[in-house]
Design goal:
With 204 residues, this protein is an alpha+beta fold. 25% of the residues lie in helices and 36% in strands. A hairpin with a 2-residue loop joins strand 4 and strand 5 (85-97).
């Protein structure tokens, strides 16, 4: 299946309904809070009260709690890695307020937005500089737009999803060594497919 076909399939899946609290077999459900830097350091951030976003990740992968500096200077809200290959990671990055009125903020330049996250993962900068292919897609979930990007490079492949909610930009980065991407593709895409923000823009 080509990358564009996969992105189309992802869109159909995500329009089908909200994420179940029960993850698929072989996966765990992560709930993220998007809290300010002062809340980070010893905070696990894995309960469903007041969660701002969620996704499923493979059972056995390990969350690594970001510290206040990583949250404050790099925007890292969540990081999970594969202990059998620590170069396979999930990172969620949030930018501060994207305008006091959510509806006034538009993700009109996805390229610039994605490049703005390079400080959170320096491999992303190299992947963009050396990319051999890119696939862009757009879908909706609960009426809100999600932008999906696949960045291919000789060393690393990224699956990226960017959206806006709660006056913030949320971005998911699923990273894998390119040599492992094809064999693990179904698992890695499952992470991206299940990523979504929770709650309504109009009620926050």
């Amino acid at each position: 299946m080509g990358a564009s076909a996969v992105l189309s399939a992802n869109a159909l899946l995500l329009q089908s309904g909200p994420a179940s609290a029960e993850a698929a077999p072989g996966f765990e459900t992560y709930y993220g809070f998007g809290l300010p830097p002062t809340s980070y350091g010893g905070y696990g951030g894995n309960a469903d009260e007041d969660a701002k976003y969620t996704f499923e990740y493979p059972s056995g992968w390990k969350p690594s709690v970001p510290n206040k500096v990583e949250k404050g200077s790099q925007g890292i809200d969540c990081r999970i890695f594969n202990p059998r290959n620590k170069n396979q990671t999930i990172t969620v990055v949030t930018f501060g307020r994207a305008g006091e009125d959510n509806k006034s903020f538009k993700l009109t330049d996805i390229e610039t937005t994605v490049q703005g996250f390079q400080a959170a993962d320096y491999d992303l900068q190299d992947a963009i500089a050396m990319e051999t292919g890119r696939t862009n897609g757009q879908r909706e979930f609960n009426g809100e737009p999600y932008y999906d990007i696949q960045i291919d490079s000789p060393e690393v492949t990224y699956l990226v999803t960017v959206t806006v909610n709660y006056g913030k930009v949320f971005a998911l980065f699923v990273k894998s060594p390119t040599r492992l991407f094809e064999q693990d593709e179904a698992t890695l895409r499952r992470i991206q497919e299940t990523f979504r923000t929770l709650g309504s823009l109009s009620t926050y």
